[in-house]
Amino acid sequence: MQEANAASIEFLRDSRRVADLLNGVIFHGKPVIMETDLQEKDPVIHKIINTGHKLTATENTLDLSVNVTVDSVKFLLMLQLQTHEHHAMPVRILNERGTDYYNQWKIIQKKHREMKDLRNGEEFLSGIGSQEYFYPVLHITVYFGKKPWTAARKMDDLFPMASYPRELQKLFTEKPILICDIRHFKHPEWFQTDLRQVCGFLRNTEDTEKLKRYVEENAIIFSNLPEDTYNLLMAMDGERNLELIKRDVQNERGGFDMCKAFREMIEEGRKRGIEQGIQQGIEQGIQQGRLEEAGFMGQLIRKLIQIGRTDDLLAASENREYCERLMKEFGIIPPNCDAHLAESIFQTRSKVTP
Fold first, then answer.
1. Which residues pair with 256 in a beta bridge?
2. Residue 298's pLDDT band (boundaries 50, 70, 90)?
3. What residues form DSSP beta bridges with 181?
4. 161 to each of 157, 164, 172, 174, 177, how far by Cα in Å?
5. Secondary structure element (H or E) that encloses residue 262, with its range
6. How far apart are CA 203 and CA 237, in angstroms?
7. How far is CA 167 from CA 82, 152, 153, 157, 160, in A?
8. How many helices and strands, by DSSP H and E, does the chain display?
9. pLDDT of 145-174, one tens digit each?
10. For 197-232, how does the pLDDT look when each residue is reduced to its tens digit (9 = 90+)?
């Protein structure tokens, strides 16, 4: 979980992807916000309260915090990256946004206290002028979980709403939090960076054939992934082999070839399956008193794998004459082997080959 969280933070620290996320989720793909409009800021927010006798402080750490300027005005973007649902997420977001608004108020209040320029009773009491404004805080939860988000989306999801009169229910109803569900995002085409391919990859991880096909169809992107994208997909997919072969699939341009990674994993899986079949066949041969025949077939399988003739191995599994011819070719059985021994070997072979 920590690895996945670190990988997602690393991935979204790229301002191009953050701009793309905002344009996709909010503006449906329109290029309204540019990467030059963004400035990352310290993700740690403090709430300091001075009672006059005692100073207390609370601290919250966001995954990412970014100042965004659009049409010459700014807002603060808070990003929370989740691999699992958080059932109290509306409370958490309310607290984080409230802390930032509180801090904005205190900064303005301090400025006026030092300048002693608030004469109006209401303004003096508030510590803020009637024509002063806060900047808005936008919070987006980026969710990478496998199942769709079913946890609370707004505060009233956490209330027993049916227990209250209808008139109160209307007052308690709040606006839902903004969740970008990466694996179930309906319009990945709204993204222009590799966020689009991340959505497509992760939505297909439960079906190996679909995933393989998707990677092949997008080979231009997947054959040269940035390292932070490869790390993200590796962490979110949970495929240990992607980590083991990572350096083997790095290309001459410095990127990482996911197409090659898939080919290597598929071939490795095929070899493991064949090797398991060899062992199972030998054990069956021992149990049935045909150790010699099982050993013959095991030799053939190993020789064919060593020289990369897996197609011949598959053909031999369907044609006894071809199987016999290959064994004679490699000197596993003598050229004048009788039909009875060949038949016995073929029967054992049919148990060995997966």
1. 225, 250
2. confident
3. 143
4. 8, 6, 8, 12, 18
5. helix 258-287
6. 10
7. 35, 22, 21, 17, 14
8. 15, 7
9. 999 999 999 999 999 999 999 999 999 999
10. 999 999 998 888 898 899 999 999 988 999 999 999
Residue 205 exposure: Cα atoms within 13 Å on the Cβ side: 20
- Closest CA relative to residue 137, chosen from 165, 105, 185: 105
Query: What DSSP line would sit under 160-220, residue for residue?
Result: -GGGS-HHHHHHH--PPPEEEEGGG-S-GGG--STHHHHHHHHHTTT-HHHHHHHHHHTHH
Higher per-residue pLDDT: 306 or 125: 125
Is the torsion defined by CA of 110, 112, 115, 119 positive or negative?
negative
d(CA 265, CA 240): 10
Paired tokens of 109: 């209040």
Q: How confident is the model at residue 352 (pLDDT cuts 50, 70, 90)?
A: very low
Tell me the two tokens of residue 274. Answer: 């064949």
Residue showing tokens 């044609």: 319
Angle at 135 between CA 66 and CA 173, to 5 degrees: 100
Q: Cα–Cα distance between 224 and 206 in angstroms, integer? A: 23
pLDDT at 294 over 70: no
User: Backbone phi, then psi, for 286, in 5-degree steps?
Assistant: -65, -45
Q: Does residue 227 contact residue 249 with C-beta atoms inside 8 Å?
A: no
Q: Contact at 8 Å (CB) between 134 and 105?
A: yes
The two structure tokens encoding residue 165: 């009169």
> How many CB atoms sit inside 10 A of residue 17's CB?
21
Only one residue has tokens 């092949």, namely: 216
Q: Out of 237-246, 317-326, 337-346, pick the least confident.
A: 337-346
Tokens of 94: 């309310």
